[in-house]
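In this section we turn from sequence analysis to structure. A common task in structural bioinformatics is to predict how a protein folds when a small molecule is present, because the ligand can shape the pocket around it. The inputs are simple: the amino acid sequence and a SMILES string for the ligand, here flavin-adenine dinucleotide. Study the lines below before reading on.
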Amino acid sequence: MRYLIIGSGIAGTTAAEELRKLDATAEIVLIGEEHEPLYSRVLLPHYAKGIVALEKIFLKKETWYLDKNIEWLRGVRCEEIDTTNRHVVVSDGREIPFDKLLITTGAEIHTLPHEGENVCYFQTLGDTEHLIAKIASCSGRGIAYGGSFIASELIDLFVHRGMRTVAAFRGPWMFSRILDAESGALVTAHLKRVGVDVRPGSETLESVGATAEDIVAVGVGIAPELGWFRDAGIATGRGVLANARLETNVAGVYAAGDIAEFDDVVVGRRVMAGNWPSAQMQGRVAARNMAGGAEEFRNVSAYATNLAGLDIIAIGDTDRVAADSTVIVGSVVAGGVTQLFVRSGKLVGATLVGRNRDRKAVTDAINAGLAVDDVKLQ
Ligand SMILES: Cc1cc2nc3c(=O)[nH]c(=O)nc-3n(C[C@H](O)[C@H](O)[C@H](O)COP(=O)(O)OP(=O)(O)OC[C@H]3O[C@@H](n4cnc5c(N)ncnc54)[C@H](O)[C@@H]3O)c2cc1C
């Protein structure tokens, strides 16, 4: 059996490792555009702050791939998939055959046309090195442009570095796609308290008025390139579509991690997870299914961050548009707000701002499919 995995992040590398456990003799090929062995993106902000040393962020050694007999094609971009003749075409023109294929190409970030020396992103180790160098030589402000988790990491980084920090975003408050007005007000109040210049309604990056002395760091969501999957007959939506077993519409072709838009059996809807633990678990489940299993992926996903001292957690399905209704517990005055997302009477998701204490109760309730009325929060 010849397994081919496109993307050597946490989902792809975990899948390769699991496949090797399941089959000692299979050929396993792992194609990755990046050059480094697997590293933790979750630790990148800690590395940028100087809290974690560079060597600590690596999760695999250079020798690991050879030791596990995994053929690792590093610095190689996969450009075409031929699902009929079962091969992929990579950036150096080679055709690489497969019996079973796993797509784990992750979340390509949305970039803005406004380019310039001082514009940074925060996705890869290379981006992080660039950001660190820019911060070291910056005499101006740290401007974080964007309203979600990566922008939050950037604000946190600038504040930690003692920089004059601007939080500029399009919406009325940070995380406005998932947070209600009360939760949003709590985040805004907290940012102002720690000295951040908060600029809601910043429709364009230009409107922020950055000068040559400033760093402009952009975190405005993801925009994966999907055309080449569609050209291969693989169905796409916002990501690569997959069923609960993480198989796509093409037999023997699977998707896992940030790129997968999968049938989530916990929340009863097709979603994209976009977090590290889910990507790792999906890599494992996809591998087992590639090796002949029929396991459904099941996990209550969560993304937790700390924004300059304020804990913010998104659990389960937090799409406000897909919810029938929401219930708010707590307030700005009380210093914590939890928002519960309800669909067909059941709790399917929650956002917790300054209320970490609800995390377990909410996670258990989503997992058990509890009615929202049965969820008791203090
Ligand atoms: C700064 C930062 C902080 C984060 N913090 C957290 C956190 O605290 N908690 C949390 O849960 N999550 C966090 N995340 C998100 C988490 O890192 C992702 O959910 C996770 O990395 C997804 O794993 P993946 O393997 O699906 O994709 P990725 O990690 O994106 O890996 C995909 C890989 O595929 C490669 N690739 C893409 N296209 C091709 C191609 N055509 N050919 C070959 N290779 C290709 C890419 O170069 C990349 O190496 C953070 C992310 C970032 C950037």
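The chain has a mean pLDDT of 96. As an exercise, try to locate the residues that line the flavin-adenine dinucleotide site and compare them with your own expectations.
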